[in-house]
Write a structure and sequence with these properties.
The chain folds into three domains: 76 residues; 177 residues, Nucleotidyltransferase, domain 5; 79 residues. It has 19 helices and seven strands. The longest helix is centred in the N-terminal third of the chain and has 22 residues. Strands 5-4-3-6-7 form a five-stranded mixed β-sheet, sandwiched between helices. α4 crosses α17 and α5 packs across α6. By secondary structure, the chain is of the alpha/beta class.
């Protein structure tokens, strides 16, 4: 083992003795690229030898008339830029290389590089410039789109996959993107459903692109979830999206709908000038921070007495949404912390908005789904963190819902 290592080190020393700069090793005409080229070409020669059954220049029988027939040349894209290869040929044209198959123009790893850049939100033009700058290789936007289009089948499979039968908590929200799908730029909503599994882990159940939201759209979403296996959900946390509460109650009649308190506070503060926002926010906190529903109702009355003359729209809005704003009061603290806000899905949306940042409009709807799906994989570690104190919440669910809890 020692002698082999010594020979290897001696060979490396010999190869590197004339390399006086990083460019000489890693550059476009550097040692690493030349070695890769030689290795690939040697493997191709070995593949042809195995195919023909005899080594170069060796005599072969007359029964098989097939023989070597010179070399063809092709350029393939690699992680380090374009590489010109001499590909051996046989007379019959039956040789099919495995390392660099016929008509393949990209070595393994190049596609992954393109997909990684795409997942970070770079457009096809930006990826083209990035590859040209770093590797000196010119890649057409069409080729980049072809590489990323391979993700679409994966997206469709993911969107149609079977789901668990029970998700104790379901968060629903939407983000907005611009698309040129039908010519003029249109703003479209991408609706997301984030479920919490019985183990307290977060799972994105699906993404749906639409021009507008409403009861009919959300009914389609929940019907799809039901058809994919979802039978029950205890609490759905939503951002007051139009038609959503009625749609989920139609498909999952036992589910309670909790409007997001954080979004409600934000909407309320839009009526308030900066100098009084802190005071108004504190009085709103007294409502949703109360220990009981009765205490919350008293806090809302005090809020109305103090602020209705200045901001007459706030307290009536809280009263109108009272049934769906106060669902969390039915539950103990462990569950309240998990359901009174949609922060879990807001964190996911924040990560996805960073992926979308800088894109004024997408060429079509499919490109939107590609970017978002690949972005999900890129930011997975950030949004898949388990719900805090989940064991305590799960025990409370068992007590409250009995047989509906499938542990």
């Amino acid at each position: 083992m020692t002698s082999v290592t010594a020979k290897q080190e001696a060979l490396l020393d010999e190869l590197l003795k004339d390399c006086t700069s990083p460019q000489a090793i890693l550059g476009e005409h550097g040692l690493l690229k030349q070695l890769t080229k030689r290795v690939v070409e040697r493997v191709l020669e070995a593949e042809l030898t195995a195919h023909l059954g005899y080594a170069p220049h060796a005599r072969h029988g007359t029964e098989d008339t097939n023989a070597r027939n010179g070399k063809g040349h092709k350029t393939v894209q690699t992680d380090t830029g374009p590489m010109d290869l001499a590909v051996p040929r046989d007379r019959n044209g039956s040789f099919a290389p495995l390392l660099v198959p016929k008509r393949q123009r990209r070595l393994e790893g190049f596609d992954d590089k393109v997909l990684s850049l795409y997942a970070r939100g770079l457009s096809t033009r930006e990826i083209q410039g990035h590859l040209e700058e770093l590797y000196g290789t010119e890649v057409s936007p069409t080729l980049i789109s072809t590489i990323t289009d391979a993700v679409l089948d994966e997206v469709r499979t993911w969107q149609a996959r079977p789901l668990a039968s029970v998700y104790p908590i379901l968060y629903l929200d939407a983000l907005f993107v611009k698309s040129r799908q039908e010519g003029p730029v249109q703003t479209k909503a991408v609706s997301l459903a984030l479920g919490v599994t019985m183990d307290g882990e977060k799972e994105l159940l699906g993404m749906w692109l639409s021009e507008s939201e409403g009861a009919k759209f959300w009914l389609m979403v929940f019907t799809e979830l039901h058809n994919r296996g979802v039978q029950d959900c205890f609490i759905a946390c939503v951002d007051g999206l139009q038609g959503l509460p009625e749609a989920i109650e139609a498909v999952f009649p036992k589910t309670q709908v909790q409007l997001c308190i954080v979004h409600k506070v934000r909407t309320s503060l839009k009526y308030v000038p900066w100098k009084e926002r802190r005071a108004v926010a504190a009085d709103l906190r007294a409502i949703y921070g109360a220990t009981t529903l009765a205490a919350a109702e008293q806090a809302l009355e005090r809020f109305a007495d103090r602020w209705d003359t200045k901001y007459p729209a706030i307290s009536p809005s809280w009263l109108a949404d009272g049934d769906r704003l106060t669902v969390f009061f039915d539950y103990p603290p462990a569950i309240r912390r998990a359901v009174y806000t949609t922060n879990a899905i807001e964190s996911l949306n924040y990560s996805l908005r960073k992926v979308l940042k800088g894109r004024s409009a997408f060429p079509n709807d499919e490109s939107i789904m590609k970017v978002l799906y690949m972005g999900l994989q890129h930011v997975a570690k950030r949004w898949t963190q388990p719900i805090p104190e989940w064991k305590a919440a799960l025990n409370q669910f068992v007590l409250l819902f009995g047989e509906r809890v499938q542990v």
